[in-house]
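Look over both lines:
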Amino acid sequence: MNASEPLFAGIDVSKAHLDVCILPSADSRSFPNEPSGHAALCQWLLERAVRLSVLEASGGYERDCASAVSLAGCPVMLVNPRQAREFARSQGQLAKTDRLDARLLAQLAQVLERSPKRAQLLHVPPDAVRADLEALVARRRQLIGMRSAETHRLDCASVRVRKSIQQVIKALDRQIEDIDRHIGAHLRTHHAVERELLDSVTGVGPGTIATLLADLPELGHLPARQLSALVGVAPLNCDSGRRRGQRHIWGGRPKVRAALYMATLSAVRFNPVIKRFYTRLLAAGKPKKIALIASTHKLLVILNAMVRTRQPWNSALHGT
């Protein structure tokens, strides 16, 4: 191997361990997935002057490691599992082990290093304030999911079981109310201006506001087209030769998109601007689902402009 040849690392993350492979040298090591292991990993990467490291998102187990590597001065990217598996298939790799996955991620790092979007893809650790909000919003989402599951079980439960389920639902309701208070206090303390701006939009409720501020920190800082693609509400082409296929949305940030979609369901009923836009699309023959997605896109563009300009909702500005 040429001594000046750049090195790339793939880091396969599990709950207990980090399996690391560096290419093209093929060096590999395993570290514990804990602060001491993160420190040792960072030192190892720095000693070898690794150009780029790539980790696969692993349900949250990758967050502390990715932040440690980035803060140590080692460029790092987080990729979603689907992206990693599709890359593996493109390389003809069907087997799956931790070591093979680490090597595959190192190969993916070599590819992403040449991407024109390299700077945008680099992981930037959230500050303590946003990390706290992210954790609160994620916990609220978990509690809502548990309450929904218990509610579905209640419909077909026997008489003896119903009381137990009802007690669990009441306990979850109390937990949700408590975490809503924490989220509200956090937003009033750290995001008062953004919260007030977003709250001025009919259809955008506290849950959507919290999700946007926690999971979409780029709101107000990116052009509308770029932000729409980031969230996953920008229609993507599906053309080949003379064929012009139907546009679809794909990828993005599903949690943010889901929150915006739910806000849109309310906005098309009660927000005059979004309602008028939605009705016009239906009158033009657009299917309801497409009209809703287009309305979600419009709502996001408006929210982005409001946060960027620090201007509250104004029907005269957004009515076109």
Observations:
- The mean pLDDT is 90.
